[in-house]
Every structure is written in C-alpha cells, then in structure tokens.
Design brief:
By secondary structure, this protein is of the alpha+beta class. The protein contains 5 helices and 3 strands. The protein is elongated and about 55 Å long.
Length: 122
C-alpha cells in the first residue's frame, strides 16, 4: 500500500503562519519583519515565535541591522527553505490531484463517502 499524500507534508512548513512566511519570503529577495507582520496579520510576538522555529530548522536567516537610525529585521529564505517550500507545494499538488480525481463530475450531488470508506457488505 502506498502512503497517503498527506504523509509528504512537513509539520514545520505546513503550519499556516510558517507557510505564509515562507511564501512571502519566496516572493522577495528579502522581506522586512514589519511587512511580514502586517501582511500576515500577526502580532510581533507571534511572528517572532514562528520565525524562531523556521530559523532553528535552517529554513530562514534573520538579519538585524539599521536603515538610517531605525532598527530593522530582515528575513531571507535559505537554500533549504526554498527546497522545503518547493517540496511542500509538490506534496499539496499531489494531494489535490488525488482528491480531484476522486470527485464526481461537475453538476452531480455528493454521494457521501466513497467506496474506500463504505462499510463492507454482510
């Protein structure tokens, strides 16, 4: 029996906020902490916690510095972070493909559980 596509999801990456951080960071060369906080609708403390998990896993680097007199924190994906995001997206595509293949053609009603979930005949 082959593994279910959900077994390919990474617990570190798949969490909604961390996936959001990686996705936003992928869209830019570097992303500033305040931009991430605002974009993802997080508190500074919550974002810091998730960034700590990603940094510990080696998926992002966090650089602190100054822009003029203002302290800034910049987040950037590592090579491992880019791969982890790519792998997560691939696992999600596999899951979506499997689920879409199990769907009834458009316009039909939902018959409930499919054959794999139906009870065995007596």
């Amino acid at each position: 029996m082959t593994e279910h596509p959900t077994s390919g999801l990474d617990d570190v990456v798949h969490q909604r906020v961390r996936l959001g951080i990686l996705a936003v960071a992928k869209e830019a060369r570097k992303v500033e902490f305040t931009f991430l906080r605002t974009t993802l609708g997080l508190t500074a403390g919550n974002l810091s916690q998730h960034l700590g998990v990603l940094e510990k896993a080696g998926l992002v680097t966090i650089d602190k510095g100054y822009e003029g007199k203002r302290a800034r924190t910049w987040i950037q994906l590592t090579k491992a972070g880019k791969k982890a995001l790519h792998d997560e997206i691939a696992a999600l595509r596999t899951l979506i493909h499997r689920l879409e293949g199990a769907e009834e053609p458009a316009g039909g009603s939902d018959p409930g559980p499919g054959p794999a979930a139906a009870p065995a005949p007596h």
